[in-house]
Amino acid sequence: MADRTPAPDTPELRERWGSFEWTKANKAKADYHIAKYPEGRQKSAVMPLLDLAQRQVGEETDTQGWLPLPVIEYVAKYIGVPVIRVLEVATFYFMYNMKPVGKYHVQVCGTTPCMLRGSDDIISACKARGMKKGEVSEDGFWTLTEVECMGNCATAPMVQINDDNYEDLTVERLDAVLDALVKGEQPKAGTQEPGRHTSEPSGGPSTLKEMVDANHDYRGEW
Amino acid sequence: MPKVTVDGEEIEVPAGATVLQACELAGKEIPRFCYHERLSIAGNCRMCLVEVKPGPPKPQASCALPAADNQEIRTDTPMVKKAREGVMEFLLINHPLDCPICDQGGECDLQDQAVAYGRGGSRYERENKRAVTEKYMGPLIKTIMTRCIHCTRCVRFSEEIAGVDEIGALYRGEDMQITTYLEQAAAHELSANVIDLCPVGALTSRPYAFEARPWELKRTLSIDVSDAVGANISLHSKGREVMRALPRINDDVNEEWLSDKGRYQVDGLSKRRLDKVFMRKGGKLQPVAWNEAFDAVAAQLGTAKSSIAAVAGDMVDCETMFAAKSLLKACGSTQIEARQTGMTYDVSNIAAVNFNSTLAGIETADAILIVGSHIRWEAALVNARIRKAVKAGAKVFVVGPEWETTYPAEFLGEDLKVLNRVPKALGDAMKAAERPAVILGGAALSKGALAPALKLVDKFGLVKDGWNGFNVLHMSAARMGSLMLGFTVPGGMADIAAKAPKVLLSIGADEMDYEPFADSLKVYIGHHGDRGAHAADIILPAASYAEKDGTYVNTEGRVQFAEKAVFAPGDAREDWTILRALADALGVNVGFDSFTELQGKMIAAVPALGEEGLADYGALPEADANGKAEGTISTYPIADFYLTNPIARASAVMQQCSAELLHADEIKEAAE
């Protein structure tokens, strides 16, 4: 499992992030999230706000973003919640990065279905490109994390890179995706298997075949 | 009222009760770790599993399951036994089982329940145990986090009771860890209660670490004298030393909490003690014999026996004050005063200076005006009660300098004039309230705000059927007792000074100003080498609250009796015996020769002191229509929560708390 301890609270960290505050656009977004909850329940907005803060840090550092302690304190203050309560949330969910990450955060699923479909090779391929688990690669591009099931077992193996999933991977397909990212292109998200659209059975449907093109009423055939 | 069957026995339980409570009512013991009567229900330890029908055919966590009509609850089936064994086995996977070196050993819920409900072995013996780094939580709480079983009682206590959110559970699953933010010290007045709450040895007492085992300790029922709340405590002693103080359960007074000062000042009982008779000779205090000291007092008085005055300190018991009063009466003097800091409020009607709502009652108030009291420091347990009232919807207003409240409160400024012309928000809240309350603190009393505050009784309708919302919050454990005994003169300390007594008996008075008594022979009868002893000409070593029986009256007028836990060190004697011997030296008769006789005389004089429980002071006095509130409250009497009395000042733990928790910034600056 990934190391979830927050980055150490150093004077440098305070100096870099101590003056963090929302950009104008993000402030509007933050207030929009808070306004979803009734009066007195503003603290319910903690999760979208942490995500927003992480994205803003990401924009400022040209990475996926992470949550330095001063930023967590800022969010806590913004919704009037003791900072320890916010830190509990931030350290609980894997979508929040507690340490700096690269421009692309490669999260490889290593749970059983993906492992059976070759996630070990995927991880080796990532490592071959210079990625190390929990660290930012030397070129600043990559951070590798092995994660538990992401719910894409039908299209295993898969990786999640920032906001997108890439599924049905082989080492070659993964390389193609990563190469595209390096070039600044946006590869096609989702399954990488030619001819497959989403997570339908590979090789075409084996049941409900009449439903492929149009809705079909099966009830008379029961 | 639902009717349920517990192990075949049908009982009726109150509506809203849980299955666990139903089982307890039926006399069945349900093992538990996370469930605690005074905290919210978490349901995460799973130790309280029982079998309930109707319901799914699996064990149910009884602490979080409401009892419903016709439920059939079983606590004695093989399924329950197996479930408990399973949970215990899981809990022990990562528990270090280092009981021989654990301070909780002998009073550990996990240890006890593992013996009673465990299976005697583990199927996980080959697994490595999880290790967790120690967390710093301040000078009072020692942590060994590998022992933690994640019941989250400490988290819930600091959030719900103390109102200072500082402990939390970080990370998830097997990595979950209990810690404070950035391992800052838990810095509030009730922080050490989490040690009692911790069912295992994860949070233990740092000052008491490796000092004693629970079965070596003698327990004595006592009363906390560090403030005027009169928290019920039990003093645990080993040999001649008090090792620790723990709270006793008393729902009317302290529930089951205790302030950090009451709990940890006890190490001061063995430091800086006066254990010999001293007399000032040539400007220096020299050890002398008792007789020499007594003779010196008698010689100073000569034939003018009535030129003697007595001042009582903050931690003196009623018996001692009565003995002093008797001695002075026999000498023909009435110069007695217990309000040693020079306060002069009217005490002709004690109801006017009593906490009339009662400590438990203030929880039910729905609008509270606090005048001149830093309640968190002056009575931390009352603050926890007010927090409960606020959680139930009460509004709180404060007159005085701002302090960090643990609940939302509106500060109305420092000027007392707001009592004459009440701001609209306050007036409206009080008018709308069914149980309005006013709490007057020491800072307000010293500014003469008692009379104008009494006018608020009619204005706000503080007195109603079954409700008296007029409260004075004292800070000294001896205060209500001294008022009941009439240990006052109308002009206070100024009156005593004006009489220029030849002999001044200072009975544990360490906060008074000794300057006006430069010409008096100052005799200090007390237990610690503190301010009083420094000023004294003769020191007669006496007993602290742990070393004598005594009656104390708390700020709500509750008469309580404390027992002697240990013997006073060296030549120190119980206070009343010193006063009795002094009577012989002065050639007067005080009328008692034993503690029982003294107590009997005291109860004959003030019958209410003979009955444990709330004393009845009658109705509030009529307010003086001309009373006007004036002046501003610029400071509160307590400058440092941890160092308010001679025992606390002598305590290394309290000094460390003060330095680390209150003055950490100054120390840091000095170091830089």
Q: Could you walk me through the main structural features you see in this protein, from its secondary elements to its overall organization?
A:
The complex is a heterodimer of chains A (222) and B (672). Chain A has 222 residues and is an alpha/beta fold. Chain A is built from eight helices and five strands, in the order αααααβααβββαβ. Chain A has a five-stranded mixed beta sheet, covered by helices on one side. In chain A, α2 (24-35) runs antiparallel to α3, α3 packs antiparallel against α4 (69-79) and α4 (69-79) packs across α5 (83-92). The longest helix of chain A is centred in the first third of the chain and has 16 residues, at 46-61. Chain A starts with 10 loop residues before the first helix and ends in a 31-residue tail after the last strand. The mean pLDDT of chain A is 91. With 672 residues, chain B is of the alpha/beta class. Helix content of chain B is 27%, strand content 18%. Chain B contains 21 helices and 29 strands. In chain B, the strands form eight sheets. Chain B has a seven-stranded mixed beta sheet with strand order 14-13-26-25-24-15-16. In chain B, α7 (290-301) packs across α17 (575-586), α8 runs parallel beside α17 and α8 packs across α18. At the A-B interface, α5 of A face β7 of B.
Q: Write the H/E string of chain A, N to C.
A: HHHHHEHHEEEHE
Low-confidence stretches of chain A: none
Helix content of chain A: 25-40%
How many helices of chain B? 21
Q: Portion of residues in helices of chain B? A: 25-40%
Query: N-to-C terminal Cα separation of chain A, in Å?
Result: 48 Å
Largest sheet of chain B: 7 strands, mixed
The Rg value of chain B, from CA coordinates, equals 27 Å
What topology, given as strand order, has the largest sheet of chain A? 2-1-3-4-5
Shape of chain A: globular
The geometry of chain B reads as globular
The low-confidence runs of chain B, each spanning 5 or more residues with pLDDT under 50, are none
**Rounded mean pLDDT score of chain A:** 91
Distance between the termini of chain B: 66 Å
Strand content of chain A: 5-15%
Tally of alpha and pi helices of chain A = 8
Structural class of chain B: alpha/beta
Strand content of chain B: 15-25%
**Mean pLDDT over all positions of chain B:** 93
Quaternary structure annotation: heterodimer
Q: Largest interface: which pair? A: A-B, 12 and 12 residues
